[in-house]
Amino acid sequence: MRIALFEPEIAGNVGAILRLGACLGAAVDLIEPMGFEWDDRRVRRTAMDYIDHVTIARHAGFDAFKAALGSRRLVLFTTKTRQSAFDFSFMADDVLLFGKESAGVPAAVADACDARVRIPIRPQVRSMNVATSAALALGEALRQTATLPS
Fold it and tell me: Per DSSP, what are the bridge partners of residue 134?
């Protein structure tokens, strides 16, 4: 299982997702450009020493990322679908894609994904923090595939 972040903008969110990946055994793909410098101290402060326990791949753009995927299924988490992540059947080698904090992903990226799912939230609110979304998504995907750490 992998988590992919499309053009992430907030260093603290990336750090939190790196820590999540380290704790649950998921590699993290970062699709550039990012909205901060990679050596931003906020990434390491949030990820702490967990950053040394996660596999990180940086990609020059979406095309480079897509080429590196191989036959893995790309599952986009978006507010622009009705398919609940909790009614979706994940596979152990899925890549869970999350868009940039301010705008999600462009239509061309969404169209390149194999599936689109959402985390159900109350109608009074727009969206959830990307790190929180990644935690819920990864937890459900690992639970379904019986690959949670023991």
Answer: none
pLDDT digits (tens, 9 = 90+) for 35-59: 988 876 777 777 778 889 999 999 9
- The Cα 125–Cα 21 span in angstroms is 27
The domain limits of the chain are 2-144
Q: How many CB atoms lie within 10 A of CB 111?
A: 10
Domain 2-144 fold is Alpha/beta knot (3.40.1280)
pTM strictly above 0.90: yes
- What's the CA dihedral at 33, 8, 91, 116 to 10 degrees? -100
Distance CA 124, CA 43 (A): 31
Nearest residue to 1 via CA among 55, 48, 47, 77: 55
Block residue for tokens 């699709």: 31
Q: Which residues are CB-contacts of 104 (< 8 A; sequence separation ≥ 6)? A: 78, 79, 80, 110
